[in-house]
Amino acid sequence: MADNDLEARHLETLDRDLGRLSNLETATAYIGRPLVGPGIAFVFIMLAALAAAIFFGQTSNTLIVVIAAAFGAYMALNIGANDVANNMGPAVGANALTMTGAIVIAAIFESAGALIAGGDVVSTISKGIVAPETMADGSIFIWAMMAALLSSALWVNLATWIGAPVSTTHSVVGGVMGAGIAAAGFGAVNWSTMTTIAASWVISPVLGGVIAAGFLWFIKARIIYQDDKIAAARRWVPMLVGIMAGAFAAYLSLKGLKHLVKISLGSALLIGLVAGGAVWVAMIPVIRKQSKGLENRNKSLKVLFGIPLVVSAALLSFAHGANDVANAVGPLAAIVSASQTGDFSESVSIPHWVMVIGALGISFGLFLFGPKLIRMVGSQITKLNPMRAYCVALSAAITVIVASWLGLPVSSTHIAVGAVFGVGFFREWDTGRRMRKARMDMPEGLEIGPDERGRRKLVRRTHFTTIIAAWVITVPAAALMSAVIFLGIRAIAG
User: Fold this and answer.
1) For residue 67, what are the contacts with CB-CB under 8 A and spacing of at least 6?
2) Which family does it belong to (predicted)?
3) pLDDT per residue over 250-280, tens digit each?
4) Could you tell me where the beta strands, DSSP code E, fall in 232-309?
5) Whole-number Å distance between alpha carbons of 212 and 216
6) Is 424 inside a domain boundary?
7) Residue 156 lies in a domain
8) pLDDT at position 31, please?
9) What is the pLDDT of residue 126?
10) Could you tell me which of 226, 216, 229 has the C-alpha nearest to residue 287?
11) β-bridge mates for residue 348, sequence order
């Protein structure tokens, strides 16, 4: 009997010990899980630095290039975490793509855009923001570019943390401006260029929102509000898909492939017209086949927009990789060139290994940290379905073409998020209009009160104000951080 009691006590002690071990494992897993992403990101940054040491070779400036490569890898990770969400968010929010599918497609097409059609040449001082001749010598220039690279990466990281999609290009511009002012004074900055960039803060989202709202109005008027929705869809959806194909053909000709072959705006529009017409004709039998047996309701229409939406997300990612990656690694390329030759007054080529760091960094950043901003853009600002997401994607392509025609610099981030806002606010206006019309026939005393009208707002105002505030302060915040970092580097370097 005593032996049985002793054995029971041993079993109870064992159970308690196992319970403690189980709790410890659970706690360790809970603590460790949030560190997995940063840990992998840190390893990637270290590998990028090692690659720089190998490819650059052993010179007196090797350490500088290694540090700059680490900053460039950090910047690329942040681009993947923040900027790519604008291309994939609408498709995920509309359930046309799963989160995993979006990440895989974006990683492939962003990398392809960067490596196949990425920027061969960039200005040593990003886009003429600062006059190179104002820099005293090569070391001052290198410190300024390092400060610009680190400050822009830190700002995009902070924006991702608070859930605000911001322009990485504007972050780099702000970083270059701040370091330029700290290095050579306010006279070093090309203020006319900065004024044009500041104007794009307003032009980009407004133009994107208006175009997206216009297409949503067309879809509602010509398809959704028709008695026979399926017949209307057979008539108009092939044309809408053709318009999207034409817009993206012109968009990629202008932006995504400009580094491979020089194409004028007129030629790009002609390419778009031919591609759009061909796809329109080809889609007529496809839509007719897809629409067979569909019920005459809005839910059925979502099927017809699914594939065009996925294709548009892939093409947007390709064009983004071709353009914005070069902007992000431009300061790194400038540092490499200045460290090799000592010349920082001319345009420089981006070394292939630098573009590889940018492309891989975007893919890792998207995989590790991208889902947060993808959900924000895709579902937390306003509710999207395939028709609304289609309008957002199409607006992004058309707005870039219109801006190129007008000679205006625009931000792809601001366009895409502005289009999401445009779709949401148009739905609010349209819903309010229909409610007012319904109230005219409503018995007295049954009117909808202000509280209920507030609950029916279709755009989250907190996200709206947070994002707009982040857009407004991106350039000055990145500039201030860059100036402080530059002064710190200069003090350390003596």
Assistant:
1) 49, 146
2) Belongs to the inorganic phosphate transporter (PiT) (TC 2.A.20) family.
3) 888 876 666 667 788 888 889 999 999 999 9
4) none
5) 6
6) yes
7) yes
8) 42
9) 52
10) 229
11) 122
Distances (CA, A) of 364 to 76, 115, 144, 330: 9, 16, 27, 19
17: in domain = no
Q: Which domain holds residue 264?
A: 36-493
Name residues whose C-beta falls within 8 Å of residue 287's C-beta, 6 or more positions apart in sequence: 233, 234, 237, 238, 241, 304
Give the whole-angstrom CA distance, residue 110 versus residue 96.
19
What DSSP letter does each residue of 60-107 carry, written as one string?
Answer: TTHHHHHHHHHHHHHHHHHHHHHTTHHHHHHHHHTTSS-HHHHHHHHH
pLDDT score for 26: 53
The contacts of residue 403 (CB under 8 Å, 6+ apart) are 203, 204, 207, 409, 410
Confidence (pLDDT) at 281: 94
Residue ranges of the chain with pLDDT lower than 50?
24-25, 27-32, 445-446, 451-452
- Here the tokens at position 154 are 């830190």
* Residues in Cβ contact with 112 at an 8 Å cutoff, skipping those fewer than 6 apart: 318, 321
Measuring CA to CA, how many Å separate 465 from each of 163, 164, 413, 457, 469? 12, 10, 16, 15, 6
Which pLDDT does position 24 carry in this prediction? Answer: 47
Q: What pLDDT was estimated at residue 122? A: 55
- Cα–Cα distance, 135 to 183 (Å, whole number): 7
Both tokens of 481, joined, read: 């951080």
Sign (positive/negative) of CA torsion 399, 401, 402, 404?
Answer: positive
Among 403, 331, 399, 355, CA closest to 117 = 355
Angle made by CA atoms 106, 388, 210, in degrees to the nearest 5:
100
In this structure, the chain runs to a length of: 494
d(CA 406, CA 279): 27
Q: Which pLDDT score is estimated for 74?
A: 93
Let me know: does 258 contact 326? Beta carbons within 8 Å.
Answer: no
The beta-strand segments (E) located in 369-482 are none
CA–CA separation, 365 and 73 (whole Å): 10
How many structural domains are present in the chain? Answer: 1
Q: What is the pTM for the complete model shown?
A: 0.81
